[in-house]
Write a structure and sequence with these properties.
Elements (H helix, E strand, L loop, with lengths): L4 E2 L1 E4 L15 H14 L3 E5 L5 H13 L4 E7 L2 H11 L5 E8 L2 H8 L3 H18 L3 E6 L6 H14 L3 E6 L6 H14 L7 E6 L6 H10 L4 E4 L13 H10 L1 H4 L1 E2 L7 H12 L20 H9 L21 E2 L4 H10 L6 H17 L2 E2 L1 H14 L4 E9 L7 E8 L3 E8 L3 H13 L4 E9 L8 E9 L2 E9 L2 H24 L10
Parallel strand pairs: 1-10, 2-3, 2-9, 3-4, 4-5, 5-6, 6-7, 7-8, 8-9
Antiparallel strand pairs: 11-12, 13-14, 14-15, 16-17, 17-18
Helix pairs in contact: 1-2, 1-11, 2-3, 3-5, 5-6, 6-7, 7-8, 8-9, 11-15, 16-17
Bound molecules: 3-methyl-2-oxobutanoic acid (KIV) and zinc ion (ZN).
Length: 519
Amino acid sequence: MSNPRIIRIFDTTLRDGEQSPGASMNLAEKLKIAQALADLRVDIIEAGFPIASPGDFEAVRQIARDIQGSTICGLARCNDADIDRAWEALQEAHDARIHVFLATSAIHREFKLKMDKEEIIRRAVAGVERAVGYCDNVEFSPEDAARTEPDFLCQVVEAAISAGATTVNIPDTVGYATPQHMGGVIADLVNRVPNIDQAVISVHCHNDLGLAVANSLAAVENGAGQIECTINGIGERAGNCSLEEVVMALRTRGDHYQADTRIDSTRLVPTSRLVSSVTGLHVQRNKAIVGRNAFAHEAGIHQDGMLKNAATYEIMRPQDVGFADTDLVLGKHSGRAALKDRTIKLGYRLTEAEINELFEDFKRLADRKKEIYDSDLAALINQRSRTDHDEWSLVGYEEHTATGKTPQIRLTLRRGTDEVTTEMSCGDGPVDAIFLAIESLTGFDVDCKDFNVHSVSVGKDAQGEVLVVIEHEGRPYHGRGVSTDSVEASAIAFLDAINRIIGADEDADARLETSEPGP
Ligand code: KIV
Ligand code: ZN
């Protein structure tokens, strides 16, 4: 493909992605993901919605200060307080963008905002102008654009560009569009908005009908120059356009789209694993590009073709998206150098101090498990990214069970750095008993809404990954734990979720009152 058009990738994992139920992340996790996104070479990172809470503000501020190589963006509604707060968070970025939005569809105007068309245009223009006063990189989104009357959408977009917006983003907020519809909306703007050449057209598709990637590609075919997406497609309800899918569709079918992105595709798998482990949102095995089976050939006829020439059944190479060439097995006798080498091959960039800590975890695991696979290593690395700021942690447990007898658990937890407490508990099974003991020791009374165990790798001694979702005061919180002992993994997952409630409560205590509904 000669001189492909470069499509900008705007990643909103940390903002729209974080709106997935129960997927909230702490500051350290957000910084880690932001660094991974910069390493992936996304053009713009939407780091959060600064006015939403002090936690969101702090995350955007620190990402803006620390992360180099990508533009850092903060979201704001079209009002002064939001925009001022967004700029306060972004001002230390080497390259900042303010993203202002206001709903434009008839249903949002009438029922949510109670504003007429003139008022919408007036507010959109005022919002863009205020943002331009701080920063020359301003994006405007007419929320629910895909359901907005085409003539009115053209008017709003023209007014926003005249006011100084350098990107106009066209959201399909409720995932209602089809590819032909979305392509038509973009074509209409290209053909009818007189100043459209003064801004980049962006597209932001939700996946309610499973069409977010297809709709984004249709938008590109009709003139969009930026795609908004998330890692693993996470986000509100059915999620957003999946970054890895849309990027690889453009790259693999460059012949058709005559377009590409700046993404380093070899970092897709490690970034996907990191986001999955931080959010507790498991990636299904058959997920395109990053799923564990995405390159697995089962049928004999396919395997035969693959051996003769991989291109017979493979349109992308696994190593191009970041799967290691072989699942090399490490074990008890593998040294620090072999471990470090493997982490690099798997796409992780760890500091010497992180390698040393990982080596300790690795040795402990190697005592419990003969063969350590890439997925075990990834689980160890991602588990460590989380445990630094935990209020409650597991010291150990004793279990007494026998067929027909009620299981008894004696559980010991640590609070902070030194306070240690123990509790005895009985339950329907060992997991129930351990959850009851945790509730009693931590003082949290929660509902367990989801509990999932699956193996991280293969073999009888495989590590089990436990994902839980618990509900506290009407809000879901996820937790994740990995261990060769599934009861221990359950305890770690449950404690992880409790620690997230504590972190979120600190943020919620100081949550700001906002006068209009959020995105
Ligand atoms: O889906 C949506 O409309 C949004 C906007 C804030 C861009 O997320
Ligand atoms: Zn959205």
